[in-house]
Amino acid sequence: MAPETDGTIPPPRRYLWMLRHAKAATGSPGGDHARPLTERGRRDAAALASRLTAGAGALAMVGPDGEDIPPPELVVCSTAVRTTETAALALTAPGGVAPEVRRERAVYGASVPTALGVLHELGDAPPSVVLVGHNPTAFSLTWELLDPTGGGRERLEAHGFPTCTLAVVALPAASWAEVELSTGRLCGVASPPY
C-alpha cells in the first residue's frame, strides 16, 4: 500500500529486478553455456522463491516513495542452462503461477549497452520485469542504471553481487524504451542465505 501523499501523482516508473544466476557447476561437457546449477544453487534459488512469495517487502525492498514494488510480470532470461534453471526455481509467483519467460541469447555475455538495448526492446512491456543474467553484466548494468548522487552505487558496491543476488532498481520512465543510465534508485539488494 502506497503511503499518503500530498496529492501529487508519482511519476511513471519501471522496476528492473536484476537477478544473477545461482551457484553453477564449474564445468560442463557442453561448455560454459551448458553449466547447470549445483545443489547449493538449487537451494538458494528455491529459498529466494519462498521469500518472493511474500513480495519484495519480505526482502526489505520498497520503491523510492515508500510504495510497494509491483511483482514482475515478465522474465527476460539468458539462454544459458544456469540462468534458465535459476528462473524456473526462483521466480514462481504466489499460487504457483510463473510470469511469462522470454529467453534472450543476447543476455548471455552481454555488455551494458547490449543489456540496455534488450531492455529498450521491451517497449511497453509490463512495468516490473526480471532480467536473469550473469556477472559482470548483472552488477555493471545495475550500477550504471543508478543515479550517481543517490547513494545506491555505494550501497551496491558494499554489498557486491554474488550468485543468486537480486537487486531492484526503480527507473523514471513511462516505457522501457525510455530507460536511461544514471537515473535509477536502488530499492534494495539481497543475497543468500535467504
Search tags:
single chain, 194 residues, alpha/beta, Rossmann fold, six-stranded mixed sheet, disordered N terminus
Explain what you see.
The chain has helices at 39-52, 81-90, 112-120, 137-145, 152-159; strands spanning 14-20, 74-77, 100-103, 128-133, 166-171, 185-190. The model is unreliable at 1-5 (pLDDT under 50). The chain has 194 residues and is α/β, with parallel strands linked by helices. Strands 3-2-4-1-5-6 form a six-stranded mixed sheet. The chain has one domain (14-190): 3-Layer(aba) Sandwich (Rossmann fold). The two termini are 24 Å apart.
- The residue fraction in helices comes out at 25-40%
Q: Total number of helical segments? A: 5
Helix/sheet category: alpha/beta
> End-to-end distance, in Å?
24 Å
Helix and strand succession? EHEHEHEHHEE
Short description:
The protein has 194 residues and is an alpha/beta fold.
Summarize the helices and strands and which ones pair or pack.
Elements: E1 14-20, H1 39-52, E2 74-77, H2 81-90, E3 100-103, H3 112-120, E4 128-133, H4 137-145, H5 152-159, E5 166-171, E6 185-190
Helix pairs in contact: 1-2, 4-5
